[in-house]
Each structure stands twice: as structure tokens, then as C-alpha cells.
Design goal:
homodimer, alpha/beta, TIM Barrel, two-stranded antiparallel ribbon, globular, 8-stranded parallel β-barrel
Chain lengths: ~475, ~475
């Protein structure tokens, strides 16, 4: 373990999904949980207000384009638990939240497999413009077979998906960074000129997966390219993230793996010419906070009463580890050795030696404590947040919600003042854009070291 | 000419586009026009508030996925005029407007050629849910070669586009009407059940153009299927509209043609088993209104000073009638006879005998008065609106904006009270959904006579 961070600012985003249940299953039944109102704009507006009060960098929307059918082999668990279904298109949630906030960022997941880059790039530019430069894009390549079946295509091999993602990002960067000169929009009444045609350019992209003429349909927005997020856990995924993402989610089932992933990504990013402060690394965070340790413990006990093991298992193991096929007493290492259904998937998780199916289920039901998990008063929470940030060289945390908007409200009330007292948290937002939330005042655009910046046109002489 | 309507309610929608210029070119330069702020949510929020004050049925967003390159052969005119570029994705504009209104509907154009029906259907369901049932879908099949080039596909033949549109709508209807039973969402705390898996169904669509498994990712929304709009002007387009659309835009370069189109659509709709009151027909409306005729005339004169002939010509003839190739003195009939560039296109317009290129240009610059065009005080405007509605059997008008939000404000101030006095306009909204704005209280869902209703599952017995 190394501790190379000290005294740096810590960043927070709230992990969201446009659904009734996302990470903490069963908790929709809590009387203080407003998630059942996920269809009301008022619910989302209140979430945004609480998050901006807590000076979060962003609300971060995960997404899926198919119902998870892993655990038990059918979508029944997902539907019963409200696990990612019914679910909004995340982009539809952003504008009304942007209208009532001034600084909070809005990151949304969008797949390079199912949306076309030309229309997606316009949609993001539109949102970046309307929000005053506060959107981010979490690039995913999609993995659910159920999603592929909704688009009538065969699931693509892992490498093909990443090749396509690479070209997709290239098309998007060209549209965002290259197509419109900075001063293309003139609004010149005398000349009766909205935009100067000489300063708007086709991109004429012709690649393996896409052929896109352009020009982009939207003029330069405050950030041009939205802040790029990624969470690659495979080798190829980590490499893609280290090269392209400005915010990266680091997973890892153990602390050793987490640290090795952090170091791996820092190394690849540095080799690609990206500075340590040009990439923000986030780990998942679970914080149950109250005025005192005892009150926080009571809150957590209250949550635990409602936790649903089925939901946690379906979420964590939905993409292949079908535990429902096995008895609770069966040992994971025996299943892996025998090569039964889901064995490949189980082999990729470093479960403690001797664990049984029952151990995994029990562990999952304990609110999935696989990442930073702290329950306590302000000091205890701040201690643990600092320790994790410093120990693992993390820039921040992607917080899971227990109640909505309760988790955001508790964070603003109890965690923020203590972290501010310690000098580890902003006392006001640094700028007006999401990129400035992450990287400080003035950092509205992609840095020159980012691969997307390579697509910018060289400044032109007199024309 | 026939006059079969008398005393019926007249409906209005405002034709919009997420751009600086749409219908009336050059007017962005007017000091009272706020369109230059098209990138600010506050601009759209104020538009929505003024429209709801005037009790419009809806704000209706046109859209395009490519820059028009017709007039003059290059996109220069479009860029200079701000004609549909830069342009927002219309769906990004709706949520913030929905958050500040309670009744106003939001119709948006989306192409069946460039978006996949599975993700599009979710997006619309999401918006229908968040707006409380206030969205509509204007089905277009797209025509701009420039749009096809942005998606790397060859422009499709007209018939193929409509075949695809037909199947696209079928997929969408299955997702909206068939996939989730009305009582599928339970939110049953005792049973720990968000949705009942027995009441959520795959659609397993396998057609010529699409293969979509489902289930739909969103539960039933207030309208399920958004209100369907269409503006088909070809024979195939008119037939598609008469069968599928609940609101139809009727064009026609002369009054005779307009009337024949209305009669044609009424006849096809009736033959398809659709009642006269199940299809609302709209024509374009241009109304410059003020407290007195003289003040309105002064307003119009003020607009005319800023009107740009280039913009009107590029808009109207952008898809093929390249007038810039000809001298102002050349007669249209000579060009058509000689079969020069754009002649095919010109032949489809019934220009008055003897008209020259110059006549068309001059006519276009007079604010494109090809539809209902009235300038005056409340009485004069109401007279002409009533006359058009009654003469042509029209249910309402799709109003063009001159200034934003001035046109909507003037309408609420001057036109609405007079039409109400005459009993031709609502004094309050009838319900809470867009469909109820069009068809009256209680009409939240597609009527049984609509082809989309055929995809509903028969009610199930005890299971």
C-alpha cells in the first residue's frame, strides 16, 4: 500500500440511474425514500438541488438498454426488484435539473454500440449548451445480450466493441473539436450573418465502422467535448480509459486489486503523456452519515431491514454468475474446478478461500460492502474518506445512494462541513462547467494532452 | 369550396425549431427577438410560459439531421441565415419546459430513417412520463441527402422509406401498447414487488427492417403512445398520415390544392374507420396581431424591413429547385420545358402562369405568404382565422413565429380573448395530456380505431 496523496481536494459524484432501484435493492420500500416518484420531474429537481447544496461535482447516470436476465436466467428478479427497469433515458432527466442549478454537473452513460455518433454528438452538444457546459459522457461499449437483442444485432466480440468505441470517439471528437471554429458564430446584424460559412467544416470521416460527412449541427458549446468518463475493468477497457477518460471509475474486489488498478491506470496515462492531475480516479463510495455515530448506526440498521439479497445478487452477478443454479453449501472453488454454469465468471472474482454460494449471498445482502463503506458521525465518515483517498491515490468517490434525496441531504449536512474543516473539500464551486469542477477554474476544454485535442484544426491565417 | 365547419373549437400549435432561424429569415436581427438566446434554457422556458398562457395545444418542434445545401448548391446560405443550423436536438428542449408548465404539449420530429425504434421508444416514454403525458411524435422519413451522408447511408428510395416508417411505427406501437399491462407496476411493499413479471411481455418483433425482442424498458405512461403527427405531401405520405396520424399538417401552394388535400385525407381516414373527430387537420398560420389594425401593420412593416429573401428561397426550395442558377427574368414554364436543373421540382409547384424567377424571389421575400396570413387587430385576425377554419374544414393552425417570445405573447394578448368571445377557443385546458388538448377530456390514450391500438394485448383472465 502506498500513500501519495495528502491534503488534496476530494471529489464526489452521486451514482444514479433513471430507475426505482439501482444499487441498494429493497430500499425503495423505505418510508423516507422518494424513488417511487422517479416519473416526476419534481423528484429529480429536488435531487439536483440537494446535490448542488452538497457541492457534488456531478450526478452520474448509469444506464442499460436491456433487462438483466442473469440471476435465475429470467428477467423476473430485475422486474420484481425494480432493478434498472422501468428506466428513463438518462438524457431526458438532465435539462430540468440543469434549469434549477448553476454548477452541478450531469454525466450520462451512452453506449457506442447502439447509438449513432452523429445524432449522439448533437444531443450532447445540445445539453452542454443548455446547461452552460455541465455535461459528461460515460463511454460504455455495452455487454448485456438482452440489449443486443433489442437492436436486432448479434453481441459483438469484446475486441470489436472496443475497436468500434475507439472509432466512435474519434468521430465525436471531430464533430466537437474540429467542425466549427471558435469564432464561427458571428451574430453580425450588419452583415446579416449568423454563422460564417468559411469557419464551419465538414469532417468527412470514413472509417471501418462509420462514415460521417458533417459539419456538426451544433456550434461550439462551453466545453465542446463533454467530460469523458470510463470504467473499464478488462485490460483493453483499462487501456481505453487511461488514454481517453478524464474521470475513471476503479473497481476491484479487494484492496490489493483496487490499488493495482489505480497504479496500472496512472502508469498507462502517464505513458500516454497525460499528467497526474489530468485524470481523476474515482472509487465507489458508500457513506451512511448522521450527527452521531449512534444515529448513523440506527439509520443503517433501518436500511438493512429492507435490503433484498436477490437484488444484490442479480445486480452483481447478472452478467453470467448464475448462483441460483447452486446450493448454498457448495464451495465456489469446487464449482470453478468443475466448470459448471457461470464458473468462468466466478473464477474472475477473488472470493476468499473456502467461500460458499451462501457466503456470497450473505455478503451481498449486507448492502454490497465491497468498496469504501463507512457508517458514522461526521468525524468517522471524514476519517474513512480521507484514508481511502490517501491510501489508494484516489481523487474521489462515486457515491451510492441509499435513500433519495436523503443520501444527498445527509452528505451536505454532515460530511461536507467536516471535510471542509479539514481543508479537503471545496467551500464554493471553482467555475461554471463540469470540467472545472473536476480540474479547477479555467479548465473548460479538453487539455492539449487529451487524444481528442489532436483533432483540432490548426489556427488559420487571414482568409 | 365547401364550408362544413361552424362554431367548432380552433386549435393552435406553435411551429418551432431548436435553431436561431426557422421560418422567418432575417428576423433574428429584430431588437425584440430573443432567438439569439436559443442556447439558454431561460429562453425556452419563457416561450413555454407564454404559450401556456395563450392555451396553445402544443409547441411543435421541426428538426433536421443535415444542413440544407440546395439554394446555391452549398450550405453557405443556411449557415449565414442560421437556417436550421446550429440546431438543438429537439428532445433536449422539452423537459425544462415541461417542468414549468402543466398543460402545454410538446411535439417533436424524429426520423424513422436515422434513429432506432427501441431507444427512440424509450426516450419518448421517458418524456411522456416526466411531462405527465404531454408529448407528441411527428413522424418523418427524412429527405435531405445531407442527412444521409451524416449517417453513412445512401439516400433510400421514397417507397423504401415509407415501408420502413410503417414497420418502425409498428415496433414502437408494440413497445408502447403491448409490452406492459396496465397494472404491471405494483409498488407492493408487502410482496417486495416493483413490477409483476407476469405482466411484462417481450414483443419479439421480427420484420424486414427491424428485429426487436423487448420488453419495453419503460412502464405505461399517461398516454402510452405519444400523439402521432404527420405531414405527408406525396400520395404515399398522405395515405400514411391519414391512417396513422392524429394531427396532420396540410400543405398546398394554392387554396384549391389545400382543399383537395383536406378532402383527400378526410376520405382516406374515414375509409380506414377513423372518425372525423379522431383526426385533427392543421394548416400553417401566420398571424401578426396587435391592439389595432394600424399597430399590427406597423409591426409587419417593421418585420419586412429585416426579411431576407435568400433565407426564404433556401428554405422553400432547398430540396431541389435551385433558382440561383437562373436569371431573374427567366420564365418558370420555359425552365420546366427545357428540363434544366431543378425543373422537375419547379414543375410540381403550380406557379401562376407567366411567373419568372424574379416573381418567385419577390414573393418569397414577402414573408412567404402562402398560407393563412393575416395582419390586424383582434377582430380582423379572428375573422380570417375563422374563415380559413370553416372554408377548408381545418381543426387548427400550426403558427409560424415572427419574434420569440413576442408572437406567442401577442397571440395570448390579442387573438385569444377575441376567439374566446366568439366561442371558438378554449377558456381553460380540457385535461392534463396533449391528446386531451386535441380531443377533449378523457382522451388520454389512442382511440380503438387507431392502427396502434390493434397491438394491444387482449385482457387476460385469472393467471
Amino acid at each position: 500500500m502506498s500513500a501519495r496523496r495528502d491534503g488534496r481536494q476530494i471529489h464526489f459524484m452521486l451514482l444514479e440511474m433513471g430507475a426505482i432501484s439501482h444499487n441498494n435493492y429493497g430500499l425503495w420500500r423505505h418510508p423516507d425514500n422518494q424513488r417511487r416518484n422517479f416519473g416526476d420531474l419534481a423528484f429529480w429537481i429536488e435531487q439536483a438541488r440537494q446535490l448542488e447544496r452538497g457541492m457534488f461535482d456531478a450526478i452520474f447516470f448509469a444506464d442499460t438498454l436491456g433487462i438483466s436476465a442473469g440471476f435465475g436466467g429470467a428477467p423476473d428478479v430485475a422486474l420484481r426488484e425494480g432493478m434498472h427497469v422501468p428506466i428513463h433515458d438518462p438524457l431526458t432527466l438532465i435539462p430540468a435539473m440543469a434549469a434549477v442549478t448553476k454548477h452541478l454537473g450531469f454525466a450520462a452513460t451512452s453506449s457506442t454500440t447502439y447509438e449513432h455518433p452523429f445524432s449522439f454528438a448533437r444531443r450532447m452538444s445540445s445539453l452542454d449548451m443548455l446547461s452552460g457546459g455541465r455535461v459528461g459522457w460515460n463511454i460504455v461499449t455495452s455487454y448485456l445480450p438482452g440489449a443486443a437483442a433489442n437492436f436486432g444485432i448479434e453481441p459483438m466480440p469484446h475486441e470489436t466493441r472496443y475497436d468500434r468505441a475507439q472509432e466512435y470517439a474519434e468521430v465525436a471528437f471531430k464533430l466537437w473539436e474540429q467542425s466549427w471554429d471558435e469564432d464561427a458564430v458571428r451574430l453580425d446584424k450588419e452583415a446579416s450573418m449568423v454563422s460564417d460559412p468559411a469557419k464551419v467544416h465538414a469532417i468527412n470521416h470514413e472509417g471501418t465502422h462509420f462514415k460521417v460527412a458533417g459539419p456538426h449541427l451544433m456550434c461550439p458549446t462551453p466545453q465542446r467535448t463533454p467530460v469523458i468518463f470510463q470504467a473499464g475493468s478488462s485490460d483493453r477497457g483499462r487501456e481505453f480509459a487511461a488514454k481517453h477518460a478524464e474521470g475513471i471509475f476503479i473497481g476491484g474486489y479487494t484492496e490489493d486489486i483496487l490499488l493495482s488498478h489505480v497504479q496500472d491506470i496512472r502508469r498507462i496515462a502517464a505513458a500516454a503523456g497525460r499528467g497526474h492531475d489530468e485524470v481523476r480516479l474515482f472509487a465507489e463510495g458508500n457513506v451512511v452519515c448522521a450527527a452521531t455515530d449512534a444515529e448513523a448506526e440506527a439509520k443503517l440498521a433501518d436500511y438493512m431491514k429492507l435490503a433484498s439479497a436477490d437484488g444484490y445478487l442479480a445486480h452483481r452477478f447478472g452478467s453470467g454468475m448464475d448462483l441460483s443454479r447452486y446450493g448454498h453449501h457448495e464451495k465456489i472453488e469446487d464449482i470453478v474446478a468443475a466448470g459448471g454454469p457461470g464458473a468462468d465468471h466466478m473464477a474472475r472474482y477473488p472470493f476468499p478461500a473456502g467461500w460458499t454460494v451462501g457466503d456470497i449471498i450473505e455478503d451481498a445482502a449486507r448492502l454490497d460492502r465491497k468498496r469504501l463503506f463507512v457508517c458514522g458521525g461526521p468525524e468517522k465518515c471524514a476519517d474513512e474518506i480521507e484514508r481511502w483517498s490517501d491510501t489508494f491515490d484516489l481523487d474521489g468517490f462515486l457515491m451510492r445512494g441509499f435513500l433519495a434525496p436523503g443520501t444527498a441531504r445527509d452528505f451536505a449536512d454532515f460530511v461536507v462541513p467536516e471535510l471542509q474543516r479539514r481543508g479537503r473539500y471545496r467551500t464554493q464551486y471553482e467555475g461554471t462547467t463540469l470540467r472545472e469542477n473536476l480540474f479547477g477554474a479555467g479548465h473548460k476544454r479538453l487539455p492539449d494532452s487529451h487524444p481528442g485535442a489532436a483533432y483540432r484544426r490548426a489556427p488559420q491565417g487571414a482568409e
